[in-house]
Design goal:
By secondary structure, this protein is mostly beta strands. The chain has no helices and 11 strands.
C-alpha cells in the first residue's frame, strides 16, 4: 500500500512562499499521477494541481495559476508544490494524492492520500 507523506507547511506572511513536498517510500512516484488538494475550515476539499505520471500533463486550479508550480524530482522520489505570492485565502490543510499509471490529469479517482500539512497565510 502506497503511503504518502506531506511536509513543508507552516505560517507565512501574505506575499511569501512555501514549498510543499509529497514523498513515499518503497514506491516510485514517477509512475503515479500526483495531485495536490486543499481544504479550508468549513469548505469543501478542492483540487489545486495535478502532475501526470512520467512526462504527463500538469494542471492548476484557476485560483493558483501563475503562483503555484508542481514538479517532480525523480532522484528524490518527491513531488513538490512551490507556492509563491501566497494569499490569506490559500490558508488550508494541503494533501497530496496518488494514482498509479495515470498519465493525464486529473485521473478518475485516487488510490492513496497523505495525512496533510497545514498552511497558514497571515500577517
Amino acid at each position: 500500500q502506497l503511503q504518502l507523506a506531506e511536509s513543508g507547511g507552516g505560517l507565512v506572511q501574505p506575499g511569501g512562499s512555501l514549498r510543499l513536498s509529497c514523498s513515499a517510500s518503497g514506491f516510485t512516484l514517477a509512475y503515479y499521477a500526483i495531485g495536490w488538494f486543499r481544504q479550508a475550515p468549513g469548505k469543501e476539499r478542492e483540487g489545486v494541481s495535478c502532475l501526470g505520471a512520467l512526462v504527463g500533463s500538469k494542471t492548476y486550479a484557476d485560483s493558483v495559476k501563475g503562483r503555484f508550480t508542481i514538479s517532480r524530482d525523480s532522484a528524490k522520489n518527491t513531488v513538490y508544490l512551490q507556492m509563491n505570492s501566497l494569499k490569506p485565502e490559500d490558508t488550508a490543510v494541503y494533501y497530496c494524492a496518488a494514482r498509479v499509471s495515470a498519465y493525464q490529469c486529473p485521473p478518475p479517482s485516487w488510490d492513496s492520500w497523505g495525512q496533510g500539512t497545514q498552511v497558514t497565510v497571515s500577517s
